[in-house]
Amino acid sequence: MKKRNDQFGGFVDLQVNGFLGVDFSSFGLTATKIRDVTRELQKRGTVAYCPTIITSSMELYEANLPVLAQSLKEPYLERAILGLHLEGPFISPEDGARGAHPRDHVLAPSTRVLDHLRKLAQDRISILTVAPERPGALTLIDHAVKAGITVCLGHHLADAETIRRACDAGAQASTHLGNGIANMLPRHPNPLWDQLDEERLIAMLVTDGHHLPASFIRVVAKVKGIEKLIVVSDATSLAGFPPGEYDCLGQKVVLEEGGRIWNPVGQHLVGSSACMLDCMNFLAGLQIFSESNLRQIGFQNPLELLKIKDYEAPPEVRVIWRNERFEVERT
Question: How confident is the model at residue 8 (pLDDT cuts 50, 70, 90)?
Fold first, then answer.
């Protein structure tokens, strides 16, 4: 019997760039690596997720999207992977808003290019992150929504009117709200206030303890409410690795003792070293949500954003609540 979305089975992560050395945005991706990532995530309480490819070359898309799409034909992976998340390439090319994404591979919004990517992915793209202020973006959003893709706004510098028009076209959420944005912003207006003010937008937050301060998370919770909050990990291939200097997403980065991954040259974060268990326990530690609220944020809300009405979690993993935090219990 399938579980209803309100029956907690573990966490659902809509933004996983990679894990334990596997990068979904690097060449050499195989079905075996995808299985390895899936098993390791499930050991840590993430029962389902969306592999995320950041802004990449067309050659990378042509290599990796078919591999990911083909893997979804396996019963084990089909249950664990809820579709693919394309974080780009239709984002802002501007420093700050672009974040760790390579400028050379940023593309102007194009329905033709999106349809090519959809074909490569065998129509298994579930989420598309775009910058709505770019010429052609609103047409792209409408096109993607009609194709059954959930559109999120991210890595952008859009003003309030553009954000409103993007929502009119069908955009539903903000990708890692508070990140993928310039370090210095006008006092007001700015994209943070305008996305908070837009009632139709669901806020996706990286609550790893590094991406956002607790005060910002509290403000978002008060403004958006439980129904419009989703936690994502933004995990990279360095998640699970020891501290040190690494190459990640095509750049030199530092993984600090506390788990923060950053680029010393660009002075920006480069994804996360956390999994959903870490993020949800950081959020639990703020003591602003009940256990049932946390389960909704980390499980039910992401499934509802993807319009998944029934989900059957794997029986091998069970996440429990003990001593005011979540733990994974192997069954």
Answer: confident
